[in-house]
Specification:
By secondary structure, the protein is an alpha/beta fold. It has 17 helices and 14 strands. The relative contact order is 0.15.
Length: 440
């Protein structure tokens, strides 16, 4: 059901050589880019008419309008299962608690007497948030996108989710209910690259945005790449991933359950166990079969995900080697199920989010830990972070110098300008001091 990669016996290679030994899904954004390019440009030129046509082509629905009416949001909230509502409200509460603490305030540094640099933090003016609606429906992704944007102080928030034939062309009612709970009333029935193009270019109904965030399929990732530079993005999210670093103290029932929980997302989802214990590896392999047989989405998602090239049990000589492996892998979600798990977690450098010990499964982070589940995939955790309040803020430096403070350093500025063969830069200072710069 799941393959093995045995890295025991020899010294582990470094850098890219180690990464090349590890499992990873094929996810060719560049190839998808060529397919989304004409779709994006069609939306650019035809606006709402293109959105309606693509809803018919891709989603099998005939839309009368793309923007979701306010009454549909209210009806979705009124019809929401009370237990689901309570769970979403708790998820929102915990997410707000964590993200509110991420707010940043302006800070002023006095460089010299009379010379200061202040960094102030300004929210993005308008954002477009994406909530997937393909194989599964993710109201939790609404929470994870909206809460940090709101806590950052973003003034204008729009959200898109694919139209559903089952619901008359509206996004899934649980998505709509989550929007209503969060006070988001600008919602569009648009999916995939079409939604990203709508946000980037704007249409008759939707003003263009400054930034698009949210997880999605390869078409969403390709559209984000297409618009990079025109708008800000969070990340080009690929298939979801879990890596578990475990030793012989880990419970194989827990480990198997956590691998399966990620595999049920998608046939390309990655489930990776890194362990120095042959006994644990064998026990997890044995445990997978009955747990898989007892759940849903077996043939269309879980089995192909576990059997795919992106999933494996990786055997290493020691936890030190295991740490090197998980750092090279850079998992979206990394669980540490070892003795002294917190100490090992503190040493991890590359992960989207780290889950410490047996009582912090990835599922907790998906919904109610308070952390954000919009995280870097495909090894991007080595250079990128998960979604946060910071994602929606821009730092702006404010430089404030008096005449005396400028005079003190003017000769250095002129010297460096001339060293770079940019004499007009120096002249800008000379003009302020009667063309004779102090110190020269």
């Amino acid at each position: 059901m799941i393959s093995r990669i045995d890295l025991r016996g020899d010294a582990l290679p470094e850098g890219a050589a180690l990464r090349d030994l590890l499992p990873r899904a094929e996810f060719d954004v560049e190839a998808a880019l060529e397919k989304v390019r004409p779709i994006c440009e069609d939306v650019h030129h035809r606006g709402t008419a293109a959105l309606i046509e693509y809803a018919q082509t891709f989603d099998g629905v005939r839309l009368e309008q793309v923007r979701v009416p306010a009454e549909a949001l209210a009806e979705a909230l009124a019809g929401l299962d009370p237990k689901v509502r309570a769970a979403l409200e708790e998820s929102i509460r915990r997410a707000r608690t964590v993200h509110r603490s991420q707010r940043r305030s302006a800070h002023t540094t006095q460089v010299v007497p009379g010379g200061t640099v202040t960094e102030k933090w300004v929210p993005v003016e308008r954002v477009g948030l994406y909530a997937p609606g393909g194989r599964s429906v993710y109201p939790s992704s609404v929470v994870m996108n909206v809460v940090p944007a709101q806590e950052a102080g973003v003034g204008s928030i729009a959200l898109a989710s694919p139209p559903q034939a089952e619901f008359g062309g509206l996004p899934h009612p649980t998505i709509l209910a989550a929007c209503a709970l969060l006070g988001v009333d600008e919602v569009y029935a648009a999916g995939g690259a079409v939604a990203v193009a709508m946000f980037a270019y704007g249409t008759e109904d939707c003003l263009p945005v400054n930034m698009v965030t949210g997880p999605g399929n390869i078409w969403v990732a390709a559209a984000k790449r297409y618009f990079t530079g025109k708008i800000g993005i969070d990340t080009e999210a690929g298939p979801t991933e879990i890596a578990v670093l475990a030793d012989d103290t880990a419970d194989p029932v827990h480990v198997a359950a956590d691998l399966i929980s990620q595999a049920e997302h998608d046939p390309l989802a990655a489930a990776v166990l890194v362990t120095d214990s042959e006994d644990l590896a064998a026990a997890v392999e044995k445990e997978l079969a009955p747990q898989v047989a007892a759940t849903k989405h077996v043939e269309d998602r879980i089995r192909p995900a576990l059997a795919g090239r992106q999933s494996a049990i990786v055997l290493v000589d020691s936890l030190e080697d295991g740490l090197k492996v998980v750092d090279a892998y850079g998992a979206e979600h990394l669980e540490i199920q070892t003795a002294d798990a917190a100490a090992w977690a503190a040493r991890v450098r590359n992960a989207g989010a780290i889950f410490v010990g047996p009582w912090a499964p990835v599922s907790l982070g998906d919904y109610c830990a308070g952390s954000n589940h919009v995280l870097p995939t495909g090894g991007c955790a080595c250079h990128s972070s998960g979604l946060s309040v910071q994602s929606f803020l821009r730092g702006i430096h404010i430089v404030d110098y008096t005449r005396d403070a400028l005079a003190e350093v003017a000769h250095h500025v002129v010297t460096l300008a001339e060293a770079e063969d940019l004499p007009a830069h120096g002249a800008a200072l000379k003009a302020r001091f009667g063309w004779k710069v102090p110190g020269q």
